[in-house]
Amino acid sequence: MVAAPGPGRRRPSQPRKEPVVADRLAARHFTAQDALPDDVEAVELRRLNSFLRGLLLLDGTVSRALEAETLHPVEIEAVAQEEREPPAAESAALGLSGGERCIRRRVEMRIASATPSVWAESYVVPERLPETFLNALTGNTQGIGGSLQQLHLESARELLWFGLATPPPWSASAGAPAGTLRRAYLIITGGQPALLITEDFALQENSGVLSLAGQGRETAPRSQ
Fold this sequence. Notes:
Blueprint: H1 18-29, H2 50-56, H3 62-70, E1 75-84, H4 88-93, E2 102-110, E3 118-124, H5 131-139, H6 143-151, E4 156-165, E5 180-189, E6 192-206, E7 209-212
Antiparallel strand pairs: 1-2, 2-3, 3-6, 4-5, 5-6, 6-7
């Protein structure tokens, strides 16, 4: 039996468990973390500040989370939208057999800067969504998340992977940061993946901690 510490003696500190929790979070919530694309580099969750970690695991509207955190309005600009056949990797993630056409949508989100803080590319399978959703998407200023909520469309998200990357090549914005945090996920309706979304969050670094860039404030990122 171990004697209790006497007066003036401190109990030995317990080993920190954060790295173990971080590893389990990634393994528990991201189903394809071991299959990162070639242009995405693995990153440990503890390098990200608390807001970025929350964005990675977010099961809701990104623009709303950004506004709640920054208290700035989020501007969403649709850069391009066209019907086309998705690349092989995207087609496989959506469970398509090949040859099917999707709607590819690209948007930029700005918070308090002319430079985007978020880029998002979506592949939408029209046959797996009601026509009302596609109509709502065209006119909804809050993008895909806002359209899903507007129509009360029952859906679930499957997080695939995340890692460090660079701004997407289709972004023409000047002054974009050199690095991004990228995540990919599926939105599932009616038991089938209907949308594949890849998001890039602009990064800044302070004392080794990564945080979201373009928030309109110069404060040290929170590490807890």
